[in-house]
Amino acid sequence: MDDQTRTEIEAAAWRKLVGHFQKRTDVQNIDLMNLAGFCRNCMSKWYLGAAQERGVDMDYDQAREIVYGMSYGEWKTNHQTEATPAQLEKFNQLGKDDITE
Question: Which pLDDT does position 98 carry in this prediction?
Answer without folding.
Answer: 67
